[in-house]
Amino acid sequence: MKLTMLYSFLKADIEEVEKELSQAIHSDTELLKDASLHLLQAGGKRIRPVFVLLAAKTGQYDIHRVKNAAVALELIHMASLVHDDVIDNADMRRGRTTIQAEWNNQIAMYTGDYMFARALNYMTVIQNPSAHKILSDAIVELCIGEIAQIQDKYRFNQSTRDYFRRIKRKTALLIAVSCQLGAVAGNASADIQKRLYRFGYYVGMAYQITDDILDFTSTEKELGKPAGGDLLQGNITLPVFYAMENPEISSRIKKVHEEMPGEDLRQIIDDILKTDAIKRSSAISQRYLRKALDQLDEIPQSKAKKSLRDIALFIGKRKY
């Protein structure tokens, strides 16, 4: 089953969000518009807007108000991807060339900044000071996470605590805030807002750990970028931490550098796959998913709640 089938009843509203996203990145500056469209047209799961819409369904749903939060969250996510690609010097994203590869780093950085600014424009429609604080705090943490990732590159002696803190800021927090702001925009109760925040956080942690597993177990075609790319760029993920418990594999991993030949990297990936690193990482991901599902227990039954649960389970079943 495709992910989109799990929330097919939102089809018209998601199309509305997609239309609004196109308008959001419009600019009289042709270069800025082209660069922004380049990423938007590459597609994506739009999982953050979906979480906003579903969370808003737990309260008083009004697509004309809620779509602004959905667009804002996706723009922030897109901006972070653009900046990520500059930091990682990545050539491919979602099977297409990145903005920095198609143009240059300067264009990419300002395009990302433009998307951040447009996100803030959209949030002004939601006249709730707490919503603005939630979003601004999330952007601050996201930036701290990006800096931490730069500092942690090729730092092979870091701890798993560093890793979990980093993926919280880079991924989980934005998904948590998507759920929270959806509930805020729908005027859901304070208890539901908190529960949906925690649900999003746990789902986000599981989602990122699963992505880190797939970086080793999927093909370049499935990933839309080279397999093992995270390790090659110096990003130490959970499977790597577990694999490095083997001294021999650890010594080989510590020799990884950006210019390493693909054949040598492939051998290291094979070594990692021969350990129990993937199995153990998967177990941690499943633990986060169970915590996420627990948060839904006290939320009233609805089509939206079922979709939230189904999406969480779908994330847990992605192929390793």
UniProtKB/TrEMBL annotation:
Keywords: Magnesium, Metal-binding, Transferase. The lineage of its organism: Bacteria, Bacillati, Bacillota, Bacilli, Bacillales. It comes from the Bacteria. It comes from Jeotgalibacillus alimentarius. One of its GO terms (molecular function) is heptaprenyl diphosphate synthase activity. The keyword Magnesium applies. This is Heptaprenyl diphosphate synthase component 2. SUPFAM superfamilies: Terpenoid synthases. One of its GO terms (biological process) is isoprenoid biosynthetic process. The keyword Oxidoreductase does not apply. Its EC number is 2.5.1.30.
